Amino acid sequence: MATIRDVAKLAGVSVATISRYLNKTGYVNIDTELKIKKAIETLNYEPSSVARGLAGKQTKTIALILPDISNPFFPELARAVEDVASTYGYTVIFCNSDDQGAKERTYIELLKKKYIDGIIFASNTLNKHDAEQINVNGIPIVCLDRAPDNHICSVVRSKNREGARLAVEHLLESGCRKIAHIYGPRDLITAQERMKGYEDAVKSLPWYSPSLMVPGNFRIDGGMQATETLLHGHPDIDGIFAGNDLMAIGTLKALHRMQIRVPDQVKVCGFDGIQMAEIMEPELTTVAQPIYEMGAIVSRLLIKKIEGSLDTNEIYELDVTLVPRKSTQKEAQL
Amino acid sequence: MATIRDVAKLAGVSVATISRYLNKTGYVNIDTELKIKKAIETLNYEPSSVARGLAGKQTKTIALILPDISNPFFPELARAVEDVASTYGYTVIFCNSDDQGAKERTYIELLKKKYIDGIIFASNTLNKHDAEQINVNGIPIVCLDRAPDNHICSVVRSKNREGARLAVEHLLESGCRKIAHIYGPRDLITAQERMKGYEDAVKSLPWYSPSLMVPGNFRIDGGMQATETLLHGHPDIDGIFAGNDLMAIGTLKALHRMQIRVPDQVKVCGFDGIQMAEIMEPELTTVAQPIYEMGAIVSRLLIKKIEGSLDTNEIYELDVTLVPRKSTQKEAQL
DNA sequence: CGTATATGTGGTACCGGTTACACATTCAAT
DNA sequence: ATTGAATGTGTAACCGGTACCACATATACG
């Protein structure tokens, strides 16, 4: 690999000039420019990002910390992040935290040593202390869903509470008269918000009872178990709003095993809008988050922050859309 | 951030000694060691990976180039790669190539500039020329599925041909008498091998006809279209072996729309063993590849290559397993 | 014409590590 | 006593860039 000094020698100028030419900082005579161009060409020179990273500030690398890439919600997000990052010339390192604070901190240490330019947090355990820790090091961060604390970093999230209300209202309109909710892990803001949305929509209704809310774990198996519990306690349930699609899929599976027909006997609605929802049989109605868009926005935000054209921390709340499908279809009106 | 010189000053020794201590290269007196330890402790010193990268050789970073992380096959693979990489202290950069040679080459250029330690190719367009190009730069590479050329890099793949035979035999055992095949993109080795496996198993059977093989694109929509074409031409088909799970899912969907019952009228088998297969209704029988294991092996291989404890290029062919599920179930024997 | 400003270029000290080499000292073996 | 290996440490060049500063020349303005 040729170095900048090789190029300088061949072009008959100093390294400073080459650097100026490369970064378009300072003056370079048009003739000199041509000579440099030719030298670079013939030497097949490519500036080393590592040297640049050491000398200057930026490594043109960002990190994406998420709980688990094999959770179907994240691949699309990751794709979006990588897409916009690469169009801006950034490279992305990805880390699976499994939502464990310890792992996150380990990664953060590692990333600091690597002079990473910024971090996207799609993980949920980042707390105020950690965020401040990173901020101290001057590394810009942007969060998904969760704000460690007000204004410590920008946050992108979608309207979880409103979405949950939408889901319940849709179930009501579809003819449900007793709707249960399977909620996700208590420590996840998204799960909390969706639960609140559910409560908003049902608490004034005569049939409402707190026992209609049971915990899941945001995974398929959790949805299955919760559904069994639910139908055991309330055999007359005719609508289930699951806190995310994975649990809704579990619900569908459990109902199928119990030989309960969807949507005839029980209607089901999920939340997230992952691809899987569409391939279920019956197809799963869901409140879709704009996953790709979230990833794209969060990346653009981070890059803006890195490049200094943004120094305020804002909260972006994205709209969700109810996607009605088979699993909540009213009986045909004959 | 403290630097090595700060530590040296505080500990009252030279930077060389600190470096020796850090890398456990060369002698360091036990007393000196203690002083250094203390200095590092009080300064909260962390060596800069970037400086190390520039001075020494390794950046402790590997790249994973795959077609598209949102293709359900890859998240699990990516997870495995990241898991083992991180246990060895490596960090992973991921790149979506969309199977476009141009994108791949752009990434490779970028990665070279970053002094990446090695590359895992799970993408399919890497050709001999590209691979040599990388080899010239001395960057170790390991491939999934595809060997650009014999012995230019190690390859991890699973027994596609044998797996396809397994699938067809299973369909035959389940009572099928006319089995079609939906194959994937012609330029993918995996698709070719699976097609060959299908042919191996059926070519000597009386009903066999080349028109039983139709192209899909390894995606859901491709599977749906292919299924429609297939049943149009051969209404008496009672078994379909799709080249991958995504297409098999499409098949299931198409059959459902055509009101053809699975497995009663037509049995379906996929290939890959992605999580989605299990959540289908009916659950999809498939030939499962050990996806996580493939990712783990390929990463370990790469790391060994990087660290010099491996210099031969080998081919690892992993066993596949037929996972019988509802979509190929025989009618109950009453 | 003197002076300010724009244009163009080079020297070189960094950035924060690694490592080759030189130089001591200790200790066991001859 | 001599020698050579093992132990221990420091100096400084290098990795490949960036950027500050000095310095020249050309052009414009009052």
UniProtKB/TrEMBL annotation, chains A, B:
**Top-rank lineage group of the source organism:** Bacteria
Q: Which PROSITE patterns does the UniProt record give?
A: HTH_CROC1, HTH_LACI_1, HTH_LACI_2
HTH lacI-type domain segment(s): 2-56
**Keywords on record:** DNA-binding, Repressor, Transcription, Transcription regulation
InterPro entries attached to this UniProt entry = Cro/C1-type_HTH (IPR001387), HTH_LacI (IPR000843), Lambda_DNA-bd_dom_sf (IPR010982), Peripla_BP/Lac1_sug-bd_dom (IPR001761), Peripla_BP_I (IPR028082)
Where is the HTH cro/C1-type domain positioned along the sequence?
Answer: 3-50
What CDD domains does this protein map onto? HTH_LacI, PBP1_LacI_sugar_binding-like
Query: Could you tell me which Pfam families the record lists for this protein?
Result: LacI (PF00356), Peripla_BP_1 (PF00532)
Q: Does the keyword DNA-binding apply?
A: yes
- PANTHER family registered for this protein in UniProt: LACI-RELATED TRANSCRIPTIONAL REPRESSOR, RIBOSE OPERON REPRESSOR
State the protein's name.
Ribose operon repressor
Lineage of the species this protein comes from: Bacteria, Bacillati, Bacillota, Bacilli, Bacillales
